[in-house]
Amino acid sequence: MKVPITGKECPYFYGDYHRGRHHEECRLIVDSNPPWEIKHCKTCPVPDIVKANTCPHMILSGEIKSGFLGIGQKVKISAYCTKSHQVVEDPYVGCSECHPILNQFTELPE
Ligand code: SF4
User: Fold this and answer.
1) Which DSSP helix (H) or strand (E) runs through 49?
2) At 107, is the secondary structure helix, strand, or coil?
3) Which residue's CA is minimally distant from atom 4 of ligand 1?
4) Which of 41, 51, 59, 79 could bridge across to 88 with cysteines, CB 3.0–4.6 Å?
5) How many Å apart are CA 96 and CA 79, to the nearest integer?
6) What lines the ligand 1 site, CB under 6 Å?
7) Residue of 100, 98, 62 lying closest to 78 (CA atoms)
8) Can you give the pTM of this predicted structure?
């Protein structure tokens, strides 16, 4: 669903505006403290991550992290691959288990 304040598609955003309702939720960040608010979508990397990497084995999780004195809250995303059973360091790229050919372009020969 498209996030209204960013205009980006996010598979975890849900908004119900039918018949005067105004219910919005993030289905990725559900039990976070501080709690999720739609303002967090402005800096959330998830729409760009899912656009860059459609791997069905990668699971995202997210939480809201507060900065110093609670200022500057940001969405922190972590990723895990259920196929290679490892933390995905760069969710934009993936763990490279399924696409090892990418390493041939990124690693220089010795
Ligand atoms: S916080 Fe991120 S994952 Fe959650 S609805 Fe907004 S853009 Fe999507």
Assistant:
1) helix 46-52
2) coil
3) 26
4) 79
5) 13
6) 3, 10, 12-13, 26, 28-29, 40-41, 44, 46-47, 75
7) 62
8) 0.86
